[in-house]
Amino acid sequence: MRRSTLGAGLVGLAVFVTAWKVIVIVSGFPAYILPPPEAVGASLVQAWLDGTIEPHAAATLVEIGLGFSVGAGLAVVVGYALGRSALIARLISPYIVAAQATPILALAPVLALWFGPGLLGKVVISALIVFFPVAVSTMVGIRSVDAGLLELGRSLRASRRQVLLTLEIPAALPSIFGGLRIGVTIAVVGAIVGEWAGAQYGLGVLVNLARGSLFDTSLMFATLATIAAIGVALYLIVVLVERRLVRWR
User: Fold this and answer.
1) CATH number for the domain that contains residue 225
2) pTM of the predicted protein model
3) Residue 204 in domain
4) At a CB cut-off of 8 Å and minimum separation 6, what does 236 contact?
5) Domain membership of residue 117 as a residue range
6) What are 59-91's pLDDT values in tens digits?
7) Which of 16, 240, 86 is nearest to 24 (CA)?
8) Does residue 162 lie in a domain region?
9) Residue 152 is assigned to a structural domain of this protein
10) What is the DSSP letter of 168?
11) DSSP E strands: which ranges in the chain?
12) 69: closest CA among 132, 130, 141, 135?
C-alpha cells in the first residue's frame, strides 16, 4: 500500500473518531446508547485479550473465506458462459436477477432451515450474496474482449483453451477484479446475516449477545469495529492480488 494512501486512511480515521467524540459530548447521549470512542477502544482491547472475540472472529473468517471462494468460483464460470452464449444469457439471466432482487435477510431463515444451523448454511448464504456482482462483472469483461484479438487467435489456430487462458481471461481480469472487490466485502455481510439466522459462534452472534443478554453497548461497537476491519483487510488483499495480476494494465 502506498504511504500516501495509508496516510489518508489514518487521517480519515482520526477525523471520524474526533467527530464521534464531539457528537458524544454535544448530544449528551448516555454510554448505553452511544459509548465514547475511548470506551469502545478499551472494550475492543479487553475483548481480544480475554478471548471473547477471538473464537467468534475465527468462525466468521472461515465462513467468509469458504463463502467467497465458492461464490466467486461459480460466478466466474457462469459469468463466462453468460458472456459467450446469448442462449445461456437468455435462459438463466432472469433467475439470477430474481435471486439477487430477493433480500438476503428474507432468504436466510429459509436457507438455515434447509441447510441447518452449521457451517454449510453460512457458506451458502455468503456464496449467494457474492455470486451476482462477480458473475455480472465477469460477463461484462468477457464481452468486452477485443474481437480483433479473438480473430487473430483463431487465425493462428489457437485452441479454445489457449484463447481462454491467453486472451479472454487476461483481458477480462480488470473487470473480474472489480466484481471481486465488491464480492469480498459483501461476503462479510452474508456471513453475518447467516449467523443471525442461527449460529453458536460468529461475530454476528456476538453482536446479538452484546445487544441483548449482556447489554454491553461498548462490546457491541467493538464487535462492529472488528467486522469493519475484517472487511477492509479482505478488500485490501484483493486489491494487492489485482495489482500483481494485472500489472500489464
Assistant:
1) 1.10.3720.10
2) 0.86
3) yes
4) 1
5) 73-245
6) 999 999 999 999 999 999 999 999 888 888 888
7) 16
8) yes
9) yes
10) I
11) none
12) 130
